[in-house]
TrEMBL record:
PROSITE patterns on file: IG_LIKE
SMART domains assigned to the protein according to its UniProt record, in alphabetical order: IG, IGc2
Gene3D superfamilies: Immunoglobulins
Stored PANTHER family: DEFECTIVE PROBOSCIS EXTENSION RESPONSE 9, ISOFORM A, DEFECTIVE PROBOSCIS EXTENSION RESPONSE DPR -RELATED
Listed GO CC annotations: neuron projection membrane
Organism per entry: Nephila pilipes
Name under which the protein is recorded: Ig-like domain-containing protein
GO biological process: synapse organization
Domain Ig-like: 48-139
Pfam families reported in the protein's UniProt record: V-set (PF07686)
Length: 173
């Protein structure tokens, strides 16, 4: 017995298959999304994100500085440290490339720390923490290294201001 084929116009054939394809894609999209209330688990890891910023710090020359970068959902991505306006990176992960005698990187949970020993005024500047996503995610924090004279003046002003406040408070009582 021979089969009878119904002729379907080409544009209707394409449209019918497009609907089937779109339904397939919708199902794939549904299964790849995290639907926590229904108990489904995402097949894609969330993108890594910075948590907060790198706090700027001011430190006396000769002391050790520590800059902190916090990243959630790092997964297989890498963290690198660098200095703004310098093309060479300081580190990738905990591997240090520049200044190995004074610089090292540590991490604990989702925090990455850049340690700089015996800072000098040449270390003053913006330090960047980067995540190896595409495009690269970057955040910066400022390190300000002050000399003894500048530091003495800063603390002297604070002491004098504090003393004046005590005198003014004493007169008001």
């Amino acid at each position: 017995m021979s089969q009878v084929h119904k002729r379907v116009p080409f544009n209707k054939y394409i449209a019918g298959n497009a609907v089937k394809f779109n339904r397939y894609k919708e199902k794939q999209h549904f299964y790849s999304q995290a639907v926590l209330s229904s108990g489904f688990v995402s097949t894609q890891a969330p993108e890594p994100e910075f948590v907060g910023g790198i706090p700027g710090i001011q430190i006396i020359a000769g002391k050790d500085a520590i800059l902190r970068c916090v990243v959630e959902n790092l997964g297989d991505y890498k963290i690198s440290w660098g200095v703004v306006n310098q093309k060479d990176q300081l580190s990738i992960g905990t591997n240090v490339f520049k200044g190995k005698d004074r610089i090292h990187v540590t991490h604990s949970n989702n925090s990455w720390y850049l340690h700089i020993k015996n800072v000098t005024q040449n270390d003053t500047g913006y330090y960047i923490c980067q995540i190896s996503t595409n495009p690269i995610k970057t955040q910066a924090g400022h390190l300000d290294v002050v000399g003894i004279c500048k530091t003495f003046l800063l603390y002297s002003v604070k002491i004098i201001s504090s003393t004046k406040m005590h005198i003014i408070n004493g007169l008001l009582k």
